[in-house]
Specification:
The protein is an alpha/beta fold. The protein is built from eleven helices and 14 strands. The strands form three sheets. An eight-stranded parallel barrel has the order 7-8-9-10-11-12-13-14, surrounded by six helices. The chain binds phosphoenolpyruvate (PEP) and manganese (II) ion (MN). Phosphoenolpyruvate binds next to loops.
């Protein structure tokens, strides 16, 4: 349930209610809005305590949260969440642009990509050092050596680094180098990993599982939020359907749908979502038109020789063109693609 404080409730009254919620054995998530503060009270026996909390000083009302996900819901926080880290701002009027290769392959590949995507207007750098591959015989990533290359690319370009963590035991190591922890589609329901990323505290980009429903995605995000990390970005990257012409089916309706239900920003991945370079720029623009708060796009200096996902990667020139198109659409829908520091 949500304890809605009155407008003008004092700091002491808010702190007192947080303490009351905790004393009742519930977990408190205070959200300090511009208008008023609400305290989400999460726990199994919450409804029994409604009346006793309602009598607290400074409390306007106590209302149940109807959605199965709680902290992620718009009921708890009607204002959009903006995730900011280094050069990246995602949410509300800020359109984050994350670009880079599928995998970190070597320093030259990563540095040249970082320079090119930055020059074209990207606001963060992607690159997988730990790769979740369908086959154990495929390139598995450079692991810590890859993380070091990503950190060097950030040092040179100032771009925030987004990189995947595939196991809970690696969270500390990856967080030591990354700005954003990416949790991949295959791990969306790896609950121990979600909790570990939640506890670590760095912003998380949570990708939708190819067979996960929207509620399952939101409940997966709830694990991270419930572990104390409010900086979660959801990512639509396509789902599996009967269609075989595209790698996945990129369901862009999920963008406005999620915005109707959650304050968390929604990022779209048109690279994995389509699986074909030629489809990426227009689906990127369509995602922006649908209200996406960010894009994550694969870019490679020479897609033909990429160690993974070359067939869906853009060249530098194609990325630049995509940016020109996306900027026009962004302007039409009231979003800006600018680095965090300038926003
Ligand atoms: C990726 O972005 O590198 C990736 C592996 O994507 P997904 O988890 O969506 O398959
Ligand atoms: Mn990839």
């Amino acid at each position: 349930m949500i304890v809605v404080m009155k407008k003008g409730a004092t700091k002491e009254q808010i702190e007192h209610m947080i303490m009351r919620v905790e004393q009742l054995g519930l977990k408190s998530h205070p959200i300090y809005g511009t208008e008023r503060t609400v305290i989400a009270a999460i726990g199994e026996k919450r409804d029994e305590f409604r009346q006793s909390l309602e009598s607290g000083a400074g409390v306007a009302e106590v209302v149940p949260i109807l959605a199965p996900y709680k902290v992620a819901s718009l009921e708890v926080k009607p204002e959009p969440t903006v995730v900011r880290i280094g050069s990246l701002a995602v949410g509300n009027c800020h359109l984050g642009m994350i670009a880079g290769p599928c995998s970190v392959e070597n320093e030259q590949q990563m540095l040249s990509t970082a320079r090119a995507v930055k020059a074209a207007g990207a606001t963060a750098l992607r690159g997988g050092a730990f790769k979740p591959r369908t086959s154990p015989y495929s390139f598995q990533g450079l692991k810590e050596d890859g993380l070091k290359i990503l950190a060097a690319a950030r040092d040179e370009t100032g771009l925030a680094v987004v990189t995947e963590v595939v196991a809970a035991v690696d969270v500390e190591l990856v967080a030591g180098y990354a700005d954003v922890l990416q949790i991949g589609a295959r791990n969306m329901q790896n609950y121990r990993l979600l909790e570990a990323a939640g506890k670590e505290g760095k912003p998380v980009l949570l990708k939708r599982g190819p067979s996960a429903s929207m509620d399952e995605l939101l409940l997966a995000a709830e694990y991270i939020l419930n572990a104390g990390n409010p900086n979660v970005m959801l990512c639509e990257r396509g789902i599996r359907t009967f269609e075989t012409h595209t790698r996945f089916s990129l369901t862009l309706a999920s963008v406005p749908y999620l915005h109707e239900r959650t304050h968390l920003p929604v990022v779209v991945d048109p690279s994995h979502g389509t699986g074909h370079t030629v489809l990426v720029p227009r689906m990127a623009a369509a995602a922006v038109a649908a209200g996406a708060d960010g894009l994550i796009v694969e870019v490679h200096p020479d897609p033909e020789t990429a160690l993974s996902d070359g067939y869906q990667s853009l060249t530098f020139a194609q990325f630049e063109e995509m940016m020109t198109l996306c900027r026009k659409v962004a302007e039409a829908v009231g979003k800006r693609i600018v680095p965090n520091e300038e926003s």
